[in-house]
Amino acid sequence: MLKKDRSIWRMRLETLAAIACFSYLVINTYLLKQKDFVVGGIIYLVLAAYYIWLFSVREMYWQRLFQLRLDAAVHREQYLAHEQPTPSVTALSLPIKITLRPGKRLWILLAVLCGLPLLILTILAIFFSISGQLANVLSSFRWIGIILLVLVLYFLSDASNEFCPTISVNEQGMAVHYLLRRTFLPWSDARLFAYYDTYTNPLAKQRFRVYELSGEHAFIHWSWRMFFSYWWEVRVNGQGIASDKRAEFVEHFSQVVMGYTHLSLCELVVPTQKKHAWSMIC
Fold this sequence. Notes:
The protein is α+β, with helices and mostly antiparallel strands.
């Protein structure tokens, strides 16, 4: 029996929160305040229905993926990936620590996205202050600031928490440091080394490749997609990696995992999901 993926519950809560927000807007704006429901209310209901449908699709996908994981741990030879890295415990010099942080470009982008609205709000506040209407807009400014802060924190935590954690590897096993928890999996306890294509977030259709190493008592997953993004800064043992060396590092990483666990790399494809010709570094 493999340990379940805890991130599924986070995505479930996020989807339900989105549905609750739409329901609140419908009730508060169109029912309690008795505004015209025909146009705006129907739009909100359609969006809420879409998210409910999307939620059910995600549920079926995760359930099928979990069954695939269980079956692949027992019948590994039926799920072997087309490209198998050569197992090697010497492909990388251990121990290694991989960290992911927002790069300078991303900080500049976030500063612009947050600073520009704040600048506009400041100008408007000065204008309303001069006209004597500042008290009427302060509450709106406060809520806008809170929303911007929540969006920034969610963006950073979502990227670093679930699929891009800090990864530490040594001769004993692999440890990952997520935002609020730490997980360690000894090499001897690993039962499945696989990759699959999953959703970027619970309300999106776009997929990206996720790798997992799991056993009965621990589950670790990560993605290399931000490893190849110039928006993020990746360091190994405190040193940056040149862009032309990153693909080689990813391959060596898989070689080390396979060398210590004696597991083959499996590919999990949900039956309803079309199989794409992804490269190993996606």
